Amino acid sequence: MINVQIGLSIKEKNLTCFRVHHLPITYLGLPLRPIPNVKAPRQLWNQAVEHLERMTVCWTRKYLLMGGRLILIKSTWSDLPGGELCSLRYDLTVPFARYVAMNGLTSFKRYQIAKVYRRDNPSKGRYREFYQCDFDIAGQYESMGPDFEVIKILTELLDELNIGDYEVKLNHRKLLDGMLDICGVPPEKFRTICSSIDKLDKQTFEQIKREMECKWRGLPHLVGLEAWVGVEEKGLTIETAEKIGTFVKERGPPLELLSKLKQEGSEFLGNNASVAALTDLEILFTALEKSKCINKVVFDLSLARGLDYYTGVIFEAVFKGATQVGSIAAGGRYDNLIGMFGTKQVPAVGTSLGIERVFNIMEQLQKDQNQAIRATETQVLVSIFGNDLSQAAELVSELWNAKLKAEYMVNKRPTKHFDRAEESRIPWMILVGEREQNEGIVRLRDTTTREEILVPRSRIVEELQRRLTPSS
After folding, report:
1. For residue 44, which of 121, 120, 107, 99 has the smallest C-alpha distance?
2. Same-domain pairing of 250 and 352
3. Which of 336, 368, 400 is the last residue of a domain?
4. Spatial CA neighbour of 300 closest among 243, 352, 244, 249
5. How far apart are CA 5 and CA 16, in angstroms?
6. What is the pTM of this model?
């Protein structure tokens, strides 16, 4: 059985305490438990339903991005027939920004594990309802300090989950803007061209190039609103598209590629946005090198996270094994988002882990290793052959008090008990029938080997603890 551990710790002075966070469900039989990683965070809970009007401050015009679909809001809010128009949250970042702004916070570290919702077509690795684990740092800190901490925590978390080989692709939004400026892309087309570049993990550059070069040749109702907006706005010259192609092919070890981009004669050195980005990245990469996690990071100029609110470093974690689920985590810096909900601009950076995608990987790893996936964490099933609930209540309470994970079952038919243990893959059973009750003993059964031993009733907790404690 694999224990999935997702959570955070608090480190203050010389004391370490753990903020335990249990999800209300287990998914695919893989339970969530906390891990000691994050330095002094606060846990945040907020509602799953957001006022749609508040959320629109994040998007230009009156278009709302929902699950990859572009929806045009035609009516004004005053036209709505009573009530308020609300939406299930798309992510945890925008509600976090709203929370910080509405509470007047200027410095805040938080983690959150909660559901988010997308209007998506369900498929492998894509869901309409799923859990995300977010960690964000808001406030003024030393240059690139929060960015370093967030990426360091992400690598620690993925290492602790032990899912296998992965990489964290990293880029900088200002470097992207500088690159597009160097290539001759008009500033008003930066975002729409970035949305094309963002598809490079799923399409070839030739496909992306055609999208960037093409001109609108049809009517909107024939090609669809989203396609129409894309081709209408993305018409670039062949030369510009090809120059973009030479840049987005650049990827490699962070310090090596950074050194290449800063060489004398580099076009990036003549662009103010690029120079600022390269300065940030030098500080960040040096810190990641000193913290011994830079080997997990790849500097990739093709990374162009699609969300508009990113303003600095952007990154995306990708599993490199056989199971293809897309990115398993992503994040970046968003210095202007909180200010959209209030009067103060509070810089922030954060990351989000897709829990279900990690579970998909872990489930496949177990199948590849012929390991059984357990549907429960239960260590022992208390089986009372009869109808005496009081016996079960007394015995299971002793196990619970000893911090053992136990369930109980009261039924006259032995096969019901054995089927329950086998279906749930519970490793141990305590069997109590009329004979055992009269003699003051219980039968302890190993469900894997089906071996049974007799144990005095008074010593059963001690015996189970001994058998369940890993040998050193």
Report:
1. 99
2. yes
3. 368
4. 249
5. 17
6. 0.73
Q: What is the pLDDT of residue 64?
A: 43
Q: Which of residues 346, 368, 390 is at a domain's end?
A: 368
Q: Residues near 96 by Cβ (< 8 Å), separated by ≥ 6?
A: 44, 46, 110, 112, 134, 136, 138, 350
143 and 264, same domain (yes or no): yes
Which positions make up the binding site for L-histidine?
91-93, 118, 132, 136, 305, 309-310
Binding residues: 91-93, 118, 132, 136, 305, 309-310
- Residue 464, pLDDT above cutoff 90: yes
- The answer, yes or no, to whether residue 218 has pLDDT greater than 50, is no
Query: In this predicted structure, what is the pLDDT of residue 370?
Result: 74
| pLDDT at residue 65 is higher than 50 | no
Per-residue model confidence (pLDDT) at position 124: 67
CA distance 258 to 91: 32
Regarding whether 359 and 445 lie in a shared domain, the answer is no
Same domain? For 160 and 266 the reply is: yes
Nearest to 25 by CA among 376, 365, 445: 376
Strands 297-300 and 166-172: parallel
Model confidence pLDDT, tens digit, residues 347-396: 999 999 999 889 888 888 888 877 766 778 899 999 999 999 999 999 99
Distance CA 302, CA 299 (A): 9
Looking at residue 270, its amino acid is G
Check if the beta carbon of residue 407 is closer than 8 Å to that of residue 381: yes
